Amino acid sequence: MNDTFVLDLNCNYPEWRLIEGAGIPRAWHSSCVLHGCKLIVSTGCADSGLLVGHPFHLNLSDQRLIWTEIPGVWTPPPRPDHVGISLSGGRILVFAGSDRVSLCGEHQMFPGTLQYMLGK
């Protein structure tokens, strides 16, 4: 699936809104929120079974709600089954994951941590 929905609970009659353009469809990714309004989606596995490594962000405070790829000189190795958490100062910590898509087979675990930086 490659769809994103936003539910605005500030309306008298809340309703779901579809946000398009989320980049490559992915599963087994991580997501977190920075600065209270930027949804970050990191790595994972594409529908084709290939691992994807580029992160995207969605600024939830913008009315247009457009997915944007986060540019960078270096991108961490793609990985499914990892954890991403937001830290202070516009940083994201990415921890562990595996190097294979097969959830039933053997995994090579990534024991380290990585950090993305995203300004305010």
TrEMBL record:
Signal peptide: none
GO biological process assignments: circadian rhythm; response to blue light
InterPro entries according to UniProt: Kelch-typ_b-propeller
Gene3D superfamilies: Kelch-type beta propeller
Superkingdom, taxonomy of origin: Eukaryota
GO CC terms in record: cytosol; nucleus; SCF ubiquitin ligase complex
PANTHER family the UniProt entry points to: ADAGIO PROTEIN 1 (PTHR46175:SF5), BACTERIOOPSIN TRANSCRIPTIONAL ACTIVATOR (PTHR46175)
Name this polypeptide is given: Uncharacterized protein
UniProt organism field: Daucus carota subsp. sativus (Carrot)
